[in-house]
């Protein structure tokens, strides 16, 4: 209260103390505010510059909403009025800034805005400084209004920078002219893109070059303050250059200058240089120049004593990483991780994971890196990272065996981190069969290895290991008894945790009750994951907050890959149905059932069912008539990407049974804009319609950006057919109208069911079908390498049963099956004779209907 | 924008504190102790910029006194670093070879000087003569 009384006194000293007290101790919510406001109002109106100055100062410090309401109209007028004193103008400018910050809506944009810009030309540099701060903030909200300030700022800046030291005597600080003002002006310029007016731009470039030149000159004073001030201006100038990103030679010079600083004696300069280089690394012009300093940076990483400098070095390494130096950088980051501060470990782990994945030329290296990561900093490896490595291993066949072996070896270490056990358990469960041949990693040894870690793990890991055990039961029947014992033990069946108990009981039952086929179906290899957004990057962004490093990731990111929340079984199926599936009727309205599949043992060599979405980033498939090659791919397999272009991706999943089939067409919107009026139509030629019945469900006409819609098509084969239906897509993207046509791979062989038969039966039937029309023979050159396993897999994928030991020549392939149509059933026999020297095949097909023979022969010939 | 300006001695006693963004009184002491702890633990080879929570600390040591300035991301660290030195030079000129005792006994004057230089978190005046002008006039008035 006393302070408020002081405010109204006329003596300067008392008033000052009063204001000082208020500005320091009173916050915006005090009850005294109203009284204070009154006092301030009086002072402002008093026209006495000192009083006004004090009052404004107080407003600036306290700046509450009520004050803003009271004074927001007045202050701009004071600011630009011609007769106010300079010191008052200074205070008024910053006062306005404060009020604007607290309540931007209350500060009207009036005609005073242009006057404010003119303040930049004022003689009194204090006013200029204040005005610059004000304009910088205002310009960020309304850039249009303050555009004129750019040219003024540039001219002012050039006058300052090129001035001789005697001009600005008061403001020259250790021979550097007005450093703080220069810094402020440079920051103001950063709010705007590079000026379009060539004169202004030329001046600005000149200015920046002068600053850079000055940095090279020998210092005018030995004092550290001189160099500090000079460098302050220099760093701000470099930020501006990076922000504009338009002058390559300036960028390169800036980069070189920073490079010199990297080895400076003073730690401050090294720190700032590393920080600026991080932003510089993102610009395309200077990326190369930045990379030349990689040795220095790595050295800094190893030898710096200051942890924040080391942290900057890591950030810079992350920013400058690209394909050429990825391996080196990742290795360095891993070695740093071992000694890093605990608070930053998680961030480094995420970064290493992202880099390893982005620049992995050889995925074995990627697997190694991630396993190393887990070994060094297992606690900080978040879930996303190890989900990702499993996803990649499953999506890529070539690395599966290597992953299994490496994981097995890693698990043998005496002290394993739990994450390693999780990853190891999962991978061995899926791909343990790939290393089971080696006596050192026989199934029993694998099981014992995993089980030895079992008790040391937490509940979720144990749950995962139980799943692995049941997968082992499927893969390696010889360890079935051992595993069943484990599952049967009381510690599992009567475990306190519900999840573990449930899993143990169910798996035990499953292993005892189910036949091998059903077990194989249920525990089939996990299909590859579809690709979506990477959640590791999202996690890194969350951690770093507004840091610029992760923004660079966005601009450099060319392919976005996905992390699944957890493995989820997708319904994979083939055309072969060997046992009656317990699943619901295919044409029923229930959810799509996971139809039984070919036992995993036979899929050892083939990648037909597995390699589905992993090559979706490959070349664009051309439109309608040219989609033949894609079509041909689908003859022997049922799932995959049918068509892809810049805008959308069409994927297929189908399953067939006798003469019925169901196909799911997935339309993925690859862009971020919606598709409107999305209408897919299935077109069948007239004669085809008689033989093939297609029934579709309608699809939502709007497809959101990045979303995927699904359409189900029910297929019924009435009679044999040769043509394929065409899928025509029409939609509106942006303003353009898009039309896409692609052939749907519904071919006669989809309704082919394999039949096993002995060799006498085969030859008997073969003789029965000796009518010339019933036989079709084709001799053709092999298009693909003649590999026995692949050929066998293709024949099975085609739908026929592969009969062993029927043909006297062991190199020949013999198959038999039945084509199911609604009207008839047509038996088919085929024989494929390869000639390795000539790289040719002879294919003979005999069926009871000539058109069928013709069609099947055509289809099958394309496959080899 | 400058968030706060502190002068703390080696024993952790705050000699001057000025906040440009409102923080509760009890939180202030907590902040000050944490800040001084991180500054004291650094050696002379380490750089003067520390990242603390979501802003940066720039500190400079003068004998037994630490001057710490907390800024947000957009400020140029080097400029602030020099600003601290400028501030000390102004004090030096006014008090002729300033010491910690001078600051303790003339806290109001130091505040006035600081207010002349920094307003609402922005550096507004760096010219020594102009900053000290009002203060010198004040002194003259109180003498007479």
UniProtKB/TrEMBL annotation, chain A:
Q: Which GO terms describe its molecular function?
A: clathrin adaptor activity; protein kinase binding
The biological processes this protein is annotated with in GO are: clathrin-dependent endocytosis; intracellular protein transport
Keyword Transport on this protein? yes
Q: Which residues cross the membrane?
A: none
Principal location listed in the UniProt entry = membrane
**Entry GO CC:** AP-2 adaptor complex
**Signal peptide as annotated in the record:** none
Q: How does this chain sit within the bilayer?
A: Peripheral membrane protein
Where in or outside the cell? Cell membrane; Membrane, Coated pit
Where in this chain does the record put each Clathrin adaptor alpha/beta/gamma-adaptin appendage Ig-like subdomain domain? 632-745
Domain of life, per the record?
Answer: Eukaryota
Give the start-end ranges of region Disordered.
547-591
Q: Per UniProt, which keywords does this protein have?
A: Cell membrane, Coated pit, Endocytosis, Membrane, Protein transport, Transport
Spell out the Low complexity composition-biased ranges: 571-591
Q: Write out the function statement from the record.
A: Component of the adaptor protein complex 2 (AP-2). Adaptor protein complexes function in protein transport via transport vesicles in different membrane traffic pathways. Adaptor protein complexes are vesicle coat components and appear to be involved in cargo selection and vesicle formation. AP-2 is involved in clathrin-dependent endocytosis in which cargo proteins are incorporated into vesicles surrounded by clathrin (clathrin-coated vesicles, CCVs) which are destined for fusion with the early endosome.
How this chain assembles, per its entry, is: Adaptor protein complex 2 (AP-2) is a heterotetramer composed of two large adaptins (alpha-type subunit AP2A1 or AP2A2 and beta-type subunit AP2B1), a medium adaptin (mu-type subunit AP2M1) and a small adaptin (sigma-type subunit AP2S1).
The record's similarity note reads:
Belongs to the adaptor complexes large subunit family.
Q: What is this protein called?
A: AP-2 complex subunit alpha
Automatic annotation (TrEMBL), chain B:
Q: Which domain of life is it from?
A: Eukaryota
BP-aspect Gene Ontology terms = intracellular protein transport
* Xref: InterPro entries: AP_complex_ssu, AP_mu_sigma_su, Longin-like_dom_sf
Query: What's in the keyword line of the UniProt record?
Result: Membrane, Protein transport, Transport
Q: How does it sit in the membrane?
A: Peripheral membrane protein
* Gene Ontology annotations for the cellular component aspect, listed alphabetically: cytoplasm; endomembrane system
- Annotated AP complex mu/sigma subunit domain residues: 1-141
The record's subcellular location field reads: Endomembrane system
* UniProt keyword annotation of Heme present: no
The UniProt similarity line reads: Belongs to the adaptor complexes small subunit family.
Quaternary structure?
Adaptor protein complex 4 (AP-4) is a heterotetramer composed of two large adaptins (epsilon-type subunit AP4E1 and beta-type subunit AP4B1), a medium adaptin (mu-type subunit AP4M1) and a small adaptin (sigma-type AP4S1).
What is its biological role?
A: Component of the adaptor protein complex 4 (AP-4). Adaptor protein complexes are vesicle coat components involved both in vesicle formation and cargo selection. They control the vesicular transport of proteins in different trafficking pathways. AP-4 forms a non clathrin-associated coat on vesicles departing the trans-Golgi network (TGN) and may be involved in the targeting of proteins from the trans-Golgi network (TGN) to the endosomal-lysosomal system.
Q: What is this protein called?
A: AP complex subunit sigma
């Amino acid at each position: 209260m006393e302070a408020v009384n002081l405010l109204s006194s006329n003596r300067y000293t008392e008033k000052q103390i009063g204001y000082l007290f208020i500005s320091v101790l009173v916050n915006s919510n005090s009850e005294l505010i109203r009284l204070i406001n009154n006092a301030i109002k009086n002072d402002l109106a008093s026209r006495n510059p000192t009083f006004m100055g004090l009052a404004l100062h107080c407003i600036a410090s306290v700046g509450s909403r009520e004050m803003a309401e009271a004074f927001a109209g007045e202050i701009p007028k004071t600011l630009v009025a011609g007769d106010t004193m300079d010191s008052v103008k200074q205070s008024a400018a910053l006062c306005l800034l404060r009020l604007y910050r607290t309540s931007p809506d209350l500060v009207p944009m009036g005609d005073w805005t242009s006057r404010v810009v003119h303040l930049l030309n004022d003689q009194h540099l204090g006013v200029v400084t204040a005005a610059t701060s004000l304009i910088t903030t205002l310009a960020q909200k309304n850039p249009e209004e303050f555009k004129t300030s750019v040219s003024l700022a540039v001219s002012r800046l050039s006058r300052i920078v090129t001035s001789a030291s005697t001009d600005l005597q008061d403001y020259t600080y250790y021979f550097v002219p007005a450093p703080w003002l220069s810094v402020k002006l440079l920051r103001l310029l950063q709010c705007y893109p590079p000026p379009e007016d060539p004169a202004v731009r030329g001046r600005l470039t000149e200015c920046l070059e002068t600053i850079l030149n000055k940095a090279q000159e020998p210092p005018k004073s030995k004092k550290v303050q001189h160099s500090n001030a000079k460098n302050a201006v220099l760093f701000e100038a470099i930020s501006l250059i990076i922000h504009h990103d338009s002058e390559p030679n300036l960028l390169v010079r800036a980069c070189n200058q920073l490079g010199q600083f990297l080895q400076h004696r003073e730690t401050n300069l090294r720190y700032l240089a590393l920080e600026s280089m991080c932003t510089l690394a993102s610009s395309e012009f200077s990326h190369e120049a930045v990379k030349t300093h990689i040795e220095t940076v790595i050295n800094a990483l190893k030898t710096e004593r200051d942890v924040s400098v080391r942290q900057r070095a890591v950030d810079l390494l992350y920013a400058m990483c690209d394909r050429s130096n990825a391996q080196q950088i990742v290795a360095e980051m891993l070695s740093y991780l071992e000694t890093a501060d605990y608070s930053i470990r998680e961030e480094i782990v995420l970064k290493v994971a992202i880099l390893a994945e982005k620049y992995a030329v050889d995925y074995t290296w990627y697997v190694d890196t991630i396993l190393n990561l887990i070994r060094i900093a297992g606690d900080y490896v978040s879930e996303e990272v190890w989900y990702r490595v499993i996803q990649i291993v499953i999506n890529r066949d070539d690395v599966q065996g290597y992953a299994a072996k490496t994981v097995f070896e890693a698990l043998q270490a005496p002290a394993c981190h739990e994450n390693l056990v999780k990853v190891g358990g999962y991978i061995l469960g899926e791909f343990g069969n790939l290393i089971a041949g080696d006596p050192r990693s026989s199934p029993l040894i694998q099981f014992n290895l995993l089980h030895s870690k079992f008790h040391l793990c937490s509940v979720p890991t144990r749950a995962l290991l139980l799943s692995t055990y049941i997968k082992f039961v499927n893969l390696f029947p010889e360890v079935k008894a051992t595993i069943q014992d484990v599952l049967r033990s009381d510690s599992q069946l009567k475990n306190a945790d519900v999840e573990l108990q449930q899993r143990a009981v169910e798996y035990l039952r499953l292993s005892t009750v189910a036949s091998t086929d059903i077990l194989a179906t249920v525990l089939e290899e996990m299909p590859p994951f579809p690709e979506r957004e990477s959640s590791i990057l999202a996690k890194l962004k969350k951690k770093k907050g507004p840091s610029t490093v992760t923004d660079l990731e966005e601009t450099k990111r060319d392919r976005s890959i996905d992390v699944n929340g957890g493995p989820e079984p997708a319904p994979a199926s083939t055309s072969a149905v060997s046992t009656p599936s317990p699943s619901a009727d295919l044409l029923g309205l229930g959810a799509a059932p996971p139809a039984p599949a070919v036992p995993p043992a036979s899929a050892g060599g083939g990648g037909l069912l597995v390699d589905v979405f992993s090559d979706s980033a490959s070349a664009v498939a051309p439109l309608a008539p040219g989609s033949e090659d894609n079509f041909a791919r689908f003859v022997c397999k049922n799932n995959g990407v049918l068509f892809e272009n810049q805008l959308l991706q069409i994927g297929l999943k189908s399953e067939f049974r006798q003469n019925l089939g169901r196909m799911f067409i997935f339309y993925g919107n690859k862009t971020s804009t919606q598709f409107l009026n999305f209408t897919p139509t299935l077109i069948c030629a007239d004669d085809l319609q008689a033989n093939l019945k297609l029934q579709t469900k309608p699809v939502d006409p709007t497809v959101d950006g990045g979303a995927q819609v699904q359409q189900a098509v029910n297929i019924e084969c009435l009679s044999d057919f040769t043509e394929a239906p065409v899928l025509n897509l029409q939609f509106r993207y942006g303003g353009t109208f898009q039309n896409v046509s692609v052939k749907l791979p519904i071919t006669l062989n989809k309704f082919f069911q394999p039949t096993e038969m002995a060799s006498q039966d085969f030859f008997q039937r073969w003789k029965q079908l000796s009518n010339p029309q019933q036989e079709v023979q084709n001799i053709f050159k092999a298009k693909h390498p003649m590999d026995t396993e692949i050929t066998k897999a293709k024949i099975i994928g085609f739908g026929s049963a592969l009969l062993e030991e029927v043909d006297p020549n062991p190199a020949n392939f013999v198959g038999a099956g039945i084509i199911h149509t609604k009207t008839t059933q047509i038996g088919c026999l085929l024989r494929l004779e390869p000639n390795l020297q000539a790289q040719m095949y002879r294919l003979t097909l005999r069926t009871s209907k000539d058109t069928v023979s013709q069609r099947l022969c055509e289809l099958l010939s394309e496959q080899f | 924008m400058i968030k706060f300006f502190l002068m703390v001695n080696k024993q952790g006693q705050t000699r001057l504190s000025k906040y440009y963004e409102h923080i509760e009184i009890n939180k202030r002491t907590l902040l000050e102790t944490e800040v001084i702890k991180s500054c004291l633990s650094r050696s002379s080879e380490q750089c003067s910029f520390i990242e603390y929570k979501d802003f940066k600390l720039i500190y400079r040591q003068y004998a037994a006194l630490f001057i710490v300035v907390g800024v947000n991301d957009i400020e140029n660290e080097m400029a602030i670093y020099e600003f601290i030195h400028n501030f000390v030079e102004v004090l030096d000129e006014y008090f002729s070879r300033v010491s910690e005792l001078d600051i303790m006994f003339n806290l109001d004057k130091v505040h006035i000087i600081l207010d002349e230089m920094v307003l609402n978190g922005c550096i507004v005046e760096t010219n020594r003569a102009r900053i000290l002008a009002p203060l010198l006039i004040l002194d003259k008035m109180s003498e007479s």
